[in-house]
Design a protein that fits this description.
Number of helices: 16
Strand content: 15-25%
Length: 482
């Protein structure tokens, strides 16, 4: 552990050593983010954040982007054109990447700015003269940290190729800029973490978009703050506000599983229904003993961001000083910044070869972690952390359940700590994704789709003379895109 400098508020697994990411073995699957990093004493440098098929993240310096595959460069071009060149400059001398897999809100914490535990894999540090490392563990932040981090990243979302049925569709990848260390370290630009809530690796074939997860994170945090306002009798407009929900389809499925019949915007309780609500249903409807429930509308990401902005500036004593410090570290990247960063090498960059198949890919070097991430439930090491948090609490919270937010996690399969029960706030349904083909639609536009269309046109039209065919023949390099 001594060879890796970790942020103060990140606690690594005690039973795992950091693993080095060798760029020559890293094969990017998706681009997730693009930004500029620099500082008062450090030349600005462009960075591209990517992920491979096993969920490992890697930041690639701007001077190495031209050596990447056509797919990754195409994804970067799509996002840059879609956002109109809008990008950010982060004043940082050191940063990390964090693949967030689960969020836990601690029960019985005093005040409104409760601590939040994020579980996942930390990658870094960057820039680094050696290959970066990754290690699993827990990052502790506050509610204000997370809300502000999402708001900071909202204008700079990365537009990724969509996996939808419509040709040319796109998905959005959102990030959080979080402080991983004390304020004095943040001020000098150290310990800054770019966090990405992502789908499990076995679902990444359907695209890198994480919009549904971001909406779930915002809903769970804002609804928890709303409940704290009611319990502490703090009179603010948020207490009376009816929040939108992240997914109407998921709510209807949960209500049907609890014995309700959905009729338009109303859920009617069946006579044989039994049991109370937990998780998302409890946050929206309370105990769930009513015979008829009015279903709320599904909210858009922009609506949840507006609610987060309202929370940050309406609660007593908010935003905290820590939030103001983090906001000062990020600003729009001007043309001058992009010009200075163009062609600028990193501090000590390592050569990144053109991605190709490797005899020993990085995922083969860590089979245990790959298997743990591929399951749609928290790995055992996450539950060990959660058990410790439960053990430090003298009593469970008033609702008797802990808020956990992640890509999946069926409650019946989870490990329950003694003295309390689990309620997973994000029982999100991904059946629309599962119904789709695993081959990304946007890649087919370069291959099978074009070939089929050409065959159809050739059957409808008469044969063209051989001389005309020769004169209109395409160069060989264009065939690579067909």
């Amino acid at each position: 552990m001594s060879q890796l400098n970790l942020p103060r508020y990140f606690v690594a697994r005690s039973d795992q050593q950091p693993i080095q990411v060798k760029p020559e073995n890293f094969i990017p699957l998706y681009a997730l983010d693009n930004f500029f990093a620099g500082g008062k004493h450090l030349q600005e440098q462009e960075w591209l954040v990517t992920t491979d098929a096993s969920g490992i993240l890697h930041a690639i310096a701007g001077d190495q982007i031209n050596f990447l595959s056509e797919d990754i460069k195409s994804q970067l071009a799509l996002s840059e054109v879609a956002c109109g060149g809008n990008n950010r400059l982060v004043e940082a001398i050191e940063f990390y990447l964090f693949n967030v897999q689960l969020m836990e809100q601690a029960p019985n914490a005093p005040g409104l700015n409760d601590p939040i535990y994020l579980y996942g894999t930390l990658h870094g540090p960057y820039p680094n003269s050696q290959a970066p490392y990754f290690i699993e563990g827990q990052l502790t932040v506050s509610r204000a940290d997370l809300l502000s981090g999402l708001l900071q990243g909202f204008p700079y979302k990365f537009t990724a190729p969509g996996m939808g049925a419509e040709p040319g569709s796109s998905d959005s990848v959102y990030h959080m800029t979080l402080p991983g260390d004390r304020d004095e370290e943040t001020i000098r630009g150290a310990g800054i973490i770019f966090a990405y809530p992502l789908m499990p690796p076995d679902m990444m074939s359907y695209g890198a978009g994480n919009e549904i997860l971001i909406k779930q994170y915002l809903f769970d945090i804002i609804s928890a703050i709303k409940e704290d306002l009611e319990s502490e009798n703090i009179k603010l407009p948020l207490r009376r506000m009816k929040l939108p929900i992240p997914s109407r389809l998921s709510m209807e499925q949960e209500l049907e599983a609890q014995g309700y019949l959905i009729k338009g915007d109303t859920a009617v309780r069946k006579p044989n229904a039994s049991g109370g609500f937990q998780g998302l249903l409890h946050s929206v409807f309370g105990s769930g003993k009513a015979d008829k429930l009015e279903l709320p509308q599904e909210g858009k990401t922009a609506q949840f961001m507006q609610l987060a902005e309202q929370v940050l500036h309406s609660l007593p004593g908010w935003p905290p000083e820590r939030t103001r410090i983090m906001r000062d570290k990020s600003k729009p990247a001007t043309r001058e910044v992009r010009m200075r960063a163009k062609g600028t090498a990193a501090l000590s960059p390592r050569e990144i070869k053109t991605p190709q198949l490797s005899d020993k890919p990085i995922q083969n070097q860590r089979p245990q972690q790959a298997r743990a991430q591929s399951q749609n439930k928290p790995a055992g090491w996450m539950l060990d952390f959660i058990d410790k948090h439960q053990g430090t609490s003298n009593q469970s919270n008033k609702d008797g359940w802990v808020r956990l937010t992640g890509a999946a996690v069926p409650p019946q399969e989870s490990k329950k700590p003694s003295g309390s029960t689990f309620s997973y706030s994000s029982n999100t349904s991904y059946s629309p994704y599962n119904a789709k083909t695993q081959t990304p639609g946007w890649m087919e536009d370069f291959s099978a789709a074009d070939t089929d269309k050409k065959q159809e046109r050739s059957e409808e039209k008469p044969q063209i003379k051989e001389t005309q065919q020769q004169s209109s023949a395409k160069p060989d390099w264009m065939k690579d895109f067909e």
